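Exercise 7. Given the encoded structure of a 311-residue chain, write a plausible sequence.
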C-alpha cells in the first residue's frame, strides 16, 4: 500500500511538472534547469566527490584542482539544462529548439544512411543526447531510440509517447536483439550510448583516459551482424539554449568478423572517439558516473594485455 501511494505521488508530480515546464518561457525553463543542476552540484556531496575523483583519474596533474571543480560544476549545470529541454521537445521542438541547432558533418551521416543498411549511431552522455535522437527523426531519417523500461508503466508510457510524437521508434532494452537487427536492415539509424559502466550489458574493458573502463560491445556486434555503418554522432549543448550536432566520419572496420579480437578493436576505436570529444568539451560530460567501476577479471587479463591494454 505504501509503495503504491508513493508511486502514485511520483507519477502525478511528474505529470504536473511536465505540464508546468512546457508552459514556461524557454529562457526561464532553461534557467531553472541550470539552477537545479548547480544546486545538485552544491548539495549532492556523493556525486560531486565522484565527479572530482573521476576528473582526477582522467587528468591527474594535467589541469589544476580549480579547473576540475569548474568542469564538474559545469557538467551538473549542462545536465540540468538538458533535462529541462528534453521535457519540452514534443511541444516546442519546431518553434523554439530546431532554429537553435547547428549541424557539422551531416554529409557523413547522409552518405551512410543512403546505402540503406542502417546506422549504428555511436554516442555518449554528453550535451543533450535526448535532443540528438529527436533531431535525426525530425530531419526525415528513420530512427529508433533505446530506452530502459521504468518501474512505473504510466511514466514509461509518457516517455514513449513523447518519443513516438517526435517520430522515433521506441526499442526497450529487454527487446530481442533481432528487433534491432531488423530495424537496422530496414535502414533505420539506432543510437547507442556506450560511455557508461553497466552490469546489465556485456562489455569489454577498453582504454578510456589511460584507464581500463567497461564498454558495451552489443552495438559493435549488432553492427557487424546487420552490415550497418558505424557513425559517431553527438549533440553538444551551450548556454543560451544553442546546440551543435557533430557527425564524425564513418568508422570502417577492417573486417566484419565477429571474433572477440575484432569486436574489441572496433569498440576501442569508438571509445577513443568519445574520449577525444570529451577532452574538447569536458564541461558537457557526466563526470558523476562511476565510469571506472569494473576491474579486470583474472581470466580476462591475458586477452586484454594481448590487445595492448595495461591492466
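Solution.
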Amino acid at each position: 500500500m505504501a509503495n503504491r501511494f508513493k508511486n502514485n505521488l511520483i507519477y502525478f508530480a511528474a505529470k504536473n511538472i511536465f505540464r508546468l515546464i512546457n508552459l514556461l518561457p524557454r529562457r526561464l525553463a532553461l534557467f531553472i534547469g541550470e539552477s537545479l543542476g548547480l544546486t545538485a552540484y552544491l548539495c549532492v556531496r556523493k556525486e560531486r566527490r565522484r565527479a572530482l575523483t573521476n576528473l582526477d583519474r582522467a587528468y591527474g596533474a594535467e589541469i589544476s584542482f580549480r579547473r576540475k571543480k569548474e568542469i564538474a560544476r559545469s557538467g551538473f549545470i549542462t545536465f540540468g539544462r538538458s533535462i529541462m529541454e528534453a521535457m519540452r521537445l514534443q511541444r516546442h521542438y519546431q518553434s523554439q529548439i530546431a532554429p537553435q541547432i547547428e549541424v557539422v558533418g551531416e554529409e557523413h551521416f547522409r552518405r551512410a544512411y543512403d546505402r540503406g543498411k542502417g546506422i549504428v549511431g555511436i554516442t555518449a552522455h554528453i550535451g543533450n543526447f535526448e535532443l540528438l535522437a529527436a533531431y535525426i527523426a525530425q530531419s526525415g531519417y528513420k530512427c529508433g531510440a533505446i530506452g530502459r523500461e521504468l518501474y512505473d508503466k504510466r511514466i514509461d508510457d509518457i516517455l514513449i509517447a513523447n518519443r513516438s510524437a517526435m517520430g522515433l521508434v521506441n526499442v526497450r532494452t529487454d527487446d530481442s536483439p533481432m528487433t534491432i537487427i531488423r530495424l537496422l536492415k530496414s535502414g533505420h539509424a539506432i543510437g547507442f550510448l556506450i560511455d557508461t559502466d553497466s552490469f546489465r550489458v556485456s562489455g569489454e574493458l577498453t582504454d578510456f583516459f589511460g584507464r581500463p573502463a567497461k564498454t558495451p560491445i552489443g552495438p559493435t556486434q549488432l553492427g557487424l551482424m546487420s552490415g550497418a555503418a558505424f557513425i559517431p554522432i553527438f549533440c553538444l549543448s551551450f548556454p543560451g539554449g544553442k546546440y551543435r550536432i557533430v557527425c564524425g566520419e564513418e568508422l570502417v572496420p577492417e573486417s566484419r568478423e565477429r571474433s572477440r579480437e575484432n569486436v574489441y578493436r572496433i569498440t576501442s576505436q569508438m571509445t577513443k572517439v568519445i574520449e577525444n570529444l570529451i577532452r574538447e568539451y569536458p564541461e558537457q560530460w557526466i563526470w558523476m558516473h562511476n565510469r571506472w567501476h569494473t576491474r579486470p577479471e583474472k581470466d580476462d587479463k591475458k586477452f586484454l594485455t594481448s590487445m595492448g591494454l595495461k591492466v
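Remark. The chain has one domain: 2-306. Students should compare their own answers with the one above.
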